[in-house]
Amino acid sequence: MATSTRRVVGFCPSRRIQNLVSRRAPINLLRSAAFVNHPASSFESPLSSSLTTRRWMATVEAPATDDAQIEEEEDDDDKIVVQLPTNDNDEELLKIRHSSAHVMAMAVQQVFPEAQVTIGPWIDNGFYYDFYFPETKDPETGETIESRKLTDQDLKTIKKSMDKIISKNFPITREEVTREEAERRIKEIQEPFKLEILESIKTEPITIYHIGDEWWDLCAGPHVESTGSLPKKAIELQSVAGAYWRGDEKREMLQRIYAAAWKSPQQLKQYKLFLEEAKKRDHRVLGQKLDLFSIQQEDAGGGLVFWHPKGSKVRRMIEDFWKDEHVSQGYDMVYSPHIANLNLWKTSGHYDFYRADMFDQMKVEDEQYQLKPMNCPFHCLMYKDELRSYRDLPFRWAELGTVYRYERSGTLHGLMRVRGFTQDDAHIFCLPEQLQDEIVGVLDLTETILSRFGFNRYDIMLSTRPEKSVGGDEIWEAATAALQGALQAKGWEYEIDEGGGAFYGPKIDLKIRDAIGRQWQCSTVQCDFNLPERFGLEYVSAEGSRERPIMVHRAIFGSIERFFGILIENCAGDFPFWLAPTQLKLLPVTDAARDFCLDIAKRANKKGLRVEVDRGNERLAKQIRNAEQARIPIMAVVGAQEMEQNTLAIRSRKLGDLGSFGVDELLDELERCAEDAIEMTKMGKQEQKNTDS
What we know:
Shape: globular
Structural class: alpha+beta
Number of helices: 21
Low-confidence stretches: 1-81, 688-693
Largest sheet: 9 strands, mixed
Helix content: 25-40%
């Protein structure tokens, strides 16, 4: 088959790699009316009422069922529900996305012949493709033309070309070739990035997929049978972003086209509604609007979070609850430095294996010091401070420790990806026979803490021994069995990622689902056979011999910053009453009423309630509107009648007017709601309307 007039597309990773990139159970989306019927402040998902009545532990083997594929006609906008499939539970969808990526790359090179292709994997909601546009020469003047920057209009042109390719219904066929033949073809069409990709492929034969006789790529599949099988109206090119080749900022800057791809236009429409809802919940926008935090990019640098007073109040509530629950479960709180001698990080292995993610060292009296990227080496030093007995174990040490990691500026994203963050870290040092019970305790604590914040649906992965690892077979098998036993003791379903564990031990990863169905990686439990060996950690056994303890790393939130961002998006800034920065706002009508309000606020603060008094220099309607916009859960208008009767007429942001309460009665009720982490629903005395004629 001739190749001189044909182009090559980017390599697509193997199915196993793709599965580890994208593992999600079906997303159940309602039409926009559903978001009205289910307030954004609710922690329960408006996306699937069938899932909100029970704990849901979804796995790829056992996804949320009942609603496999639901597509109803558009005859009742308030009731249409579309069950959006995923790459994992719908092979046809995966093929559509994979083949659509190829068609888009072919279209790009038809429209812009100078474009060079790199990689184009499928992702959760479609696919993306990275292109390199080199500088070119004007054929008439010989002047250098700068590399092309794709625009929105370019995307429209590319999409039209894609539609033509789809309409021609080219067959998509598979071919096996030798490595030498693949290299010859790539050199013939002058695709330098393809040669690098070919070098990274270790298996043989090399597989190629063709779109008719027009175009081909290095690819492992799978694909649809022909381009005509692709649904034109269910594919949408969405945006362009920059990306370095191989993620290396010293390499070429590429242009990445993101696209959504579904099986039907209806599914695409529902996905776009989902994106609109997600946009409303963007923690970066809400963080600024609600005055919770900021990132002073220009003056202080990127990826560094400034917690404003309101955000700090929420953080304090999160941290206090976290600490109290840990202490009640037998943990000791510890604190460690923010920097340490570089030798510590060489001992731990972080300097050798993690150096690219660490900040540069600083010189202190002719020695090199390092900002800490992890807390665990410090805890190892604490353990090593004295010889331990088997009778002392287990040790459970918890720390809210701030760490610093070098993240490239292009990867920073609000609170989700920062350079300085506080890990809710803990390490357990235990005997092998204690491991399963300790893991069960960790899972119990994780469930207690996450459920307090409304996260009750988890996806769980147990990752086992990789090819390269430390530790013997016996300890790996025992640790893996302990993790499995703990999950089974909890009755939780989970998926096994064979060979996906860390080199130092097996692990459990837990992903939570937010109010609109998105997954977030938060909690992790990891066994570690490496650091005890590196630091020479020992305990004296019952027989008097020196033995190594098993070390368990675990985090529940992951980091305070990231969890706070997730929390903001989960509740759309409408924090539950117990977490709200301001729980009650008093709106005085007169100056005299302001003094009355200040006295109430002082009494409320003594009960641990967070109460604000409006300055009273705005019209009442503006005061109420300001309180609503600040998402304050409870407010009260205070005038002469309230002062005379020592009462407050209460309005709930979520439930409306609750009636009139005596001041002491109200403060007691709010204190109870805060302690029990519930919303105020109690009804007070209702104002009697005069019905006399």
